[in-house]
Design brief:
Structural class: mainly beta
Helix content: under 10%
Radius of gyration: 29 Å
Low-confidence stretches: 1-27, 395-399, 494-519
Strand content: 35-45%
Largest sheet: 6 strands, mixed
Number of helices: 4
Distance between the termini: 35 Å
Shape: elongated
Length: 519
């Protein structure tokens, strides 16, 4: 919402500005402990719009519920009899609520099992009772949607999420071992090393008619994208529908992949022909038809981290300055970063490590297993050590990028001291009539600071002022213009009686008047 200025006579205009406090530009991200004492939590989610509950996936097969900040004594679902969590990368790995959960009560889980053979299941379950209030699922309601082979114990991925198209997307690892010995990542007749796209409402075999390889011989029809090693967490931007994927590397690169909302599927993300931006074993174009789609960002394995954790684009309401920033981490090195990605230009900007900043809150970023979103888009950090933290942030006012002054717009008497204040940010460049303001022997100060000070104002200072600044998220912005008219000395006393009358009216209305003080 922008501040609207009314047109008043001169006397009224001089005293109707309300001086608002500037936001604290030093505010930073932090962590707020939500719950501790969990058993190897791997993921967190909630039904869309549910601001009161968090559903936490524990590796051994239990889904816990935190309601209104308290861990409930009874689990939502206990699948320990089905789940095989005997190896480090096995267990209950993912969960997603149906987009119509509040009406149909359906949700989906992804787990490894030895029941009926060593395999991985994507299964549908139903809640017991009213989905809006019930915190207990029906353990007997399982319907297996997709079965995946498990040639080795590692690289099981396991993320589930519904896309903006209402389809269920599932991440699968390449089947394990090292260097993808079965070449599953590039094999389009295998479900391993892929992003699968599943129509859970259509009935078996749950294949959407518009998946890219439907009807093609020797092609798995559930495949949406391929060429992945161990995609440990993906997400959809709540605003744009774009998909971000964190894919764990082999020995050289950890990478972030991107699929735009308007993708028609079929992208080859490279593995094992490529890792990060590099072709493995030689140069040239990596991958096969339709060609190698490179990551948007990569960092060195065993240098900057060793196990990337894909995260989320922030679209919550708690810290508006970080709207659009993508958060991700590394579980091996216990690190958290944020960045911004522009799909139009392909540019990554504002890459910033957040680990120390988060830990200044007195909480610990240790072994981040996942990020999570609640039902209204706020972000959480899931630590394998047993804690869930809410990410808190700077309360930057998203409203007016307008200049505040110690006097109202329009008229200043020469000889007065004038302060112009820009919105909170991290860098500033004041301009007059479109050109940078220049210092004047100490009379004009703060040309690269939040406050521009004239002490005293001179006749030549009249003009239109703006401030180019970086907001709390280090994004470029510019204020609306402030027009300064400088009156000759002695112009104001003639209207003092009118001013005094209006001041009284303003105070009776509960307003705050700004007073121009001459030197």
């Amino acid at each position: 919402m922008r501040v609207q200025h009314r047109a008043f006579p001169l006397a009224f205009t001089l005293i109707t500005a309300i001086l608002l406090p500037a936001c604290d530009a030093t505010s930073q991200l932090g962590l707020e402990l939500v719950v501790s004492g969990l058993d190897r939590p791997l993921f967190l989610t909630a039904p869309e719009g549910d601001a009161d509950r968090l559903f936490i996936v524990e590796q051994d097969g239990v889904i816990q519920v935190v309601a209104n900040g308290s861990l409930l004594p009874t689990p939502f679902l206990d699948l320990t009899a089905l789940v095989d969590a005997s190896a480090n990368e096995e267990g209950l790995l993912g969960m997603a609520f149906h987009p119509d959960y509040l009406s149909n009560g359906l949700f989906y889980v992804n787990y490894t099992t030895t029941v009926g053979g060593t395999q991985q299941h994507i299964a549908q379950y139903a809640v017991q009772g009213d989905p809006a209030t019930s915190n207990v699922a029906n353990a007997a309601s399982e319907t297996i949607i997709v079965t995946l082979p498990k040639p080795f114990e590692n690289h099981n991925a396991g993320m589930l999420a519904f896309g903006p198209d209402g389809m269920l997307y599932a991440a699968t690892g390449d089947g394990g071992s090292g260097n993808d010995p079965n070449n599953n990542g590039q094999n389009r007749n295998s479900r391993l090393g892929k992003i699968l796209r599943i129509d859970v409402d259509s009935g078996a075999p749950y294949v959407p008619a518009d998946n890219p390889f439907v009807g093609m011989v020797d092609h798995e029809e559930l495949i949406w994208a391929y060429g992945l090693r161990n995609p440990w967490r993906f997400s959809f931007d709540r605003m744009t529908g774009d998909m971000f994927i964190g894919d764990v590397g082999q020995n050289t690169w950890e990478e972030l992949d991107f699929l735009p909302a308007d993708s028609t599927g079929g992208e080859n993300l490279g593995w094992k022909l490529a890792e990060g931006f590099e072709c493995r074993g030689g140069g040239g174009a990596c991958g096969t038809d339709p060609g190698f789609t490179p990551p948007i960002h990569a960092y060195r394995t065993d240098v900057d981290g060793d196990s990337v954790v894909g995260g989320y684009v922030y679209r919550g309401a708690a810290f508006p300055a970080l709207q659009g920033a993508y958060f991700f981490g590394d579980s091996g090195f216990s690190r958290v970063w944020s960045l911004r990605y522009d799909p139009e230009s392909g540019d990554v900007s504002e890459l910033q490590e957040r680990t120390v900043e988060l830990e200044l809150s007195g909480q610990d970023v240790s072994f981040p297993a996942s990020f999570g979103e609640d039902g209204v888009g706020e972000l959480y950090l899931v630590n394998l050590s047993g804690t869930i933290h809410r990410i808190t942030g700077p309360a930057v006012d998203p409203e007016p990028n307008v200049i505040k002054a110690n006097i109202p717009d329009g008229f200043v008497e020469a000889g007065a001291r004038l302060e112009l204040t820009a919105p909170a940010g991290s860098a500033y460049q004041w301009k007059k009539d479109g050109s940078p303001v220049l210092p004047d022997g100490g009379r004009i100060t703060g040309i690269t600071s939040v406050e521009l000070i004239f002490d005293p104002v001179e006749q030549d200072d009249a003009g239109t002022y703006t401030c180019a600044y970086d907001d709390g998220a280090k994004a470029a912005a510019e204020t609306e213009p402030y027009t300064l008219n400088v009156l000759p000395v002695g112009s104001l006393p003639a209207i003092n009686s009118v001013l005094m009358l209006f001041v009284a009216v303003v105070f009776m209305m509960g307003g705050i008047s700004a007073v121009l003080v001459k030197r």
